[in-house]
Amino acid sequence: MPLYIVWGKPLRPKDVTYLFERGYLRIHKGLWMSRSNSLDLDLKPVIDSCLDSITVLKTARELQKPFINFEEGIYNLGSLILVAYDLPRNVRVRKAVSRLLRRSPCFKLSPSIYLFPHTKYEEYDKTPIVSPSNLIKRIIIYGGRITCASRLILIHECSAKRIIEEFLNSLDKRVENVYNYCLTLENDEKFRDLKLLSEFKIEVKTLKALLKFYKNEMGLSLNGVYSKVYKASKILSNF
Length: 239
Prior knowledge:
The chain is of the alpha+beta class. The chain has helices at 13-21, 39-47, 91-102, 132-141, 157-187, 194-218, 223-236, and strands spanning 3-7, 25-28, 31-34, 54-59, 67-69, 74-76, 80-86, 107-110, 113-117, 145-154.
């Protein structure tokens, strides 16, 4: 079965040459595929410069459920769907895809490579959540190119820990931005612009849906984050 290697940082030219010589196939910028049985040995000359950003996945026959326990140091993302894309050089298209990604329950590996939990997204059809299949459809409509693989699992648990920590840092910043705006909103009338209010209300609705997804599908009970989103929602309901 193929192995998928995602590089979160640009590879050095000599590393690219080395991987091609070892029979590795580049299928997307930052995404390589291999059927090597000696992956660790193959990557040893390359990995030192990218150790904190490399993600290796393999195909699993059976779907695996995620299990995350911060107290016990367990980071298992379960089965995943990989989506990598290339977009036309069009500002409007790139902004549209960026908006879709903000509504997608995914983990960012690089600017155009994401991992989605492998679950039944039909249950979220009536929510703001964008499933990987819907994201793929929209990108194709926009004239983009897609590379996709499903039933993947992470080989190294340290990768899962890094991915989750980066995801939580990004989510915290996003929630903090909404929360701080709402606190300012109560005390300063100049921030009560109707368009801005509408955008933040949509953002809060999206965050609520995403947090519910992460709790139900990933077992991530982010109570501190949810508390700030709930308070922001309560403030925005007054305007």
